[in-house]
Structure formats: structure tokens, C-alpha cells
Amino acid sequence: MLSGRESDRRIENGGTVRSHDQNSARVIESKNIVEFKTYCYWYNKDLWRSEPVRFSVSRENGEGPFILTRDDTKVETDESFLAKLQEIIEKHKLVSKNGDYEHTYGIPPEFTDYEIKAVYDSGEELHFITNGGPESPWCADLRKALCDELVRHGIEDMLPPIEDRRIARFDLKFNEWPRNISYGTIRTEDDEAGKRPVHFSKIVFNYETRSSEGLKIITIPDGFYARITELVDQTNLKEYSNGKIDFPDAFGGGGMMMGMVMQTQEQPKIDKEHTPYIGYCCEGESGKQCNTFRYGDDIPEGLKEAAAVIREYLEEVFASQ
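Above: the chain's sequence. Below: its structure in C-alpha cell form.
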């Protein structure tokens, strides 16, 4: 136990206390959660702020339906939601933290005391408290699972405003040496002045031959942006926004996405022609944009998978016209 003077000194100097329960298992055999609670933070890219993620799932007196509780909101849930929570635990190998306790004094709450407690039908338990950060992937996944479950019950207060969610313009760009492939909104002479572009293009450029391999322009079909909105949501594409891109006029007079990675003295210069990259920019009906531009080893597998799904849809649209 810390004395008052030692405790004060820890608060002043940002000291960290760590311990581990030696009786906590590093392997949990059961996959069936019967009780769950968590507390962590998630960084809201739309609002540029960190938000707490706090909820629990349990049965009243161990009987009856599972109840999901978030603040003053309570809804019935079931084993399928608990199974999603178990998937997140396994995906991020959170059992490896079982029994850990970590607390740092004197730092903002969004960086300390992240907690998960899960009780299984076998009686096994997962419980840890650790330092974290609003960018922690497992926190983002828990927040997404919670949001999806509440939306299923008609509760949408965790979602951004509808005018931000509904996509009105979208660009996607790949570099796959020797080809650079760009899909995106483009203005043509047929577009009415002051209105949103009604055309979409695909441009393929070969860096090796320094020549174009094709330009195709199509009229945006009915339901196009509604489907893009669905796919962006389903693939969690916006979660990969990294704030490293400058689009001064992404949808201005030129129309097509013109991305430029910000270079600093600390960052090595990137060989943009030979290095794989994925870039996207999507704009909601409100005008808010979400974008990223990731190179080489900085491209997460999840982003590759999400971009591939949307790319497949774009190719189907081009093939149909």
C-alpha cells in the first residue's frame, strides 16, 4: 500500500503502478460469454474528439434475457451479440492481458484504466485494467459492435448525422506498379454549372511506359451513392482515415482526386511510383470529408479488404455501361 507522500509523488510525476494476478489464466477454453462489461475510449474522427465507450451485458439475477446497458439505455440482446464480443477478444488476443492491472497517475482519463471483464458459462473469467489510447483497435471494434447492436434496436444516437453519413461524392485510388488506377467524380462540359458532377471516371496510367492505358467516363447511375454509402459502412472504410492527406480542392473545378502526402523532415521521401498505396476521399451530403492515403507497409490489411470490396462494385458499374 502506498503512503500518502508516495501516492502524491506518483500523481505529480506521472508514475505507473502495475501488478498481475498470478491466478489468472492465459488460456480460456470456453467461447460463451454470459456476462460482460467494458470501459475504454474511442476517437471520433467526425467530431475530432475522444469519447468514452462504456457498456455491460448481463442477465437479471442470472436469469431471463440478456440486457445490454449503456448509460441510461437498456435493451434486450442475445448470444449473437456476445459472440461478436468474443470475436473481438480473440481477434486482438485480449486474453493475454488477463489479470493485468496498470494505472498511470496524472494523465487524462482517455489514456488509462481501460477495462474488460468477461465471465464465461464455464466459470472462467477474463479481467484486466490497462493503459490505452483512443486509437486502440480493440476499442474501435467494441464501439462499432455496440453501435451496430443499438442501431438494430432503432437507437441511432451514436451515429453521425444522416447528412454526414450519406455519401454524395467518392474517389478511390490505387498504385500497383507499373499502373496507377483512379476512380472518381469528374466534371465534364455536360455538367450544369453549380451542380454536383453527374459523371464518374476510371483512369489507368502506366508509370513504366509513361502513358495512359485508358480513360472511361460514365454517367453516375441511380442508386450509385446509396450503394457506396452502404459499402463504406459495411467495410468500416472510414475507420482508416489517417489525417495524412491534403485535398485542397478534392472535388473542385478539376473534379478528380488530387492527393498529396505531407512530407516532413522526420519522414523519408516516398517513391510514389513504385510504392503500393491506397487512397480514398468520401464526402457526405453536408460537405464533410473523410480521407486517407496510405503507402507500403502503412496499408492495414483491413483497408486492403475494404478497398477491394468497393473496387469490385465500381468495376461492375463500369462494366454495365
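The radius of gyration is 24 Å.
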